[in-house]
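re: ur question from the group chat, yeah i did fold both. here u go
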Amino acid sequence: MKTIPIYLSFLCCLLIHLPAGYAAEQEKNDRLKELDAYWAEVSRTVREGDFEGYKATCHEQGVLVSGSKRTSYPLSKALARWKKDFIATKAGTIKANVEFRFSQRFGDETTAHETGIFLYSFTDQDGQWKQEHVHFQALLLKSKEGWKIMMEYQQSKATQAEWVALAGQSKK
């Protein structure tokens, strides 16, 4: 007879904690959907040469960190440097594309820290496709305007093999 109250107590505890766990998992899934949409927008702007659209994905006080160059500086400086490539892409002079894969995705309702590799593909002046695989980390903030990148840390070059290995992990 005493085992029934123990089982009932266990069942009650399980039912009480299940909705909280479910709600947290749902919040995480919703956040990841929003972030996937954010990265899809970044890809679209690069592919279409939409400089203003790309700039809108960046926080006005954002920072670019380069591990290979051992530097950090305002993202606005990087945007000024990249603008010519967006203009050339929009004009059809070059083609560009960027894809993202993730190894870690942490966050809450207003912050996200994403780690992975991006693949930047582009045509050179001779029309030949080039590819750059880059290990990166991104720190994003969400406001009423949506997600904005606050810090982009381009850590180091990545390999094609590392890129392929992330194919199955991207939804973490």
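okk and heres the other one u asked abt
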Amino acid sequence: MSETNAVIYSVENSVAWLRLNRPEHMNAMTNGLMQGISAGVANVREDPSIRALVITGEGRGFCAGADLNQVAEGSSPAESAGKPAEETKVDYFNKALADLKNCPVPTIARVNGPAAGGGLGLALSCDITLAGHSAFFVATFGPNLGIVPDMGTTWNLPRRVGRARSLSMTLLGERVSAAQAEEWGLIWRAVPDADLDTETAKVVAILKNSSPDASVRIRETIDAAMDNGFEQQLDLEMAHQAVLIPKNMKAGAKAFLEKRKPVFDGSRRA
């Protein structure tokens, strides 16, 4: 399979889908696959009709982490760490994660199977993570590879589950089941495999009908709260409200009083 179709991009009813398409390798990450993720997010940026983005895996796995064949050949972006800029290759891995983090619409990870190593980081990079019961999450970096967790794992993991669980997952490398992940708050919800599409559709329907501007500002505000003082956070909330209240609140209040769903301005953050 060529790297040109390592990620399948499609749009269905104003929702963009990124399907990792290396099923014979459990959708292991290569430079080409990560470029495909970045290209997909770029497409979303260019299409103002898109209201949400879903990322999932083809076949029986979500993502098995970095393709170790590429690493063994020395073509992993990590090999360039510490080298002068003129000697390094483009870091397609971190670029893809940053692109997802800054996506102009809400992002959903539909975890349909194992999310290991960098695949864990990819699953946690999305705003909402759903998983089928057959899925599991495992941080293989330290015990198996002798490296520090990357792909944003050290940023996202403690924010979701705290220090004790983050250290245990990354130092011990034990599998965390989808049900356990839900209990810990690592993911939003675990459901029977047969219900994963239905649950994904429910989440997508809510996000698709929400204000994309408000959704992205909510993400930014929640993330900032981990570092801001209380008064800083109050100021940030009010800065966003100054834009969103005149843009959306009248429509929301009117819909509430009329006992119907609101129809928000579909424009994204300016």
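fwiw on the second one: Residues 84-88 have pLDDT under 50 and may be disordered. The radius of gyration is 19 Å. idk if thats what u expected
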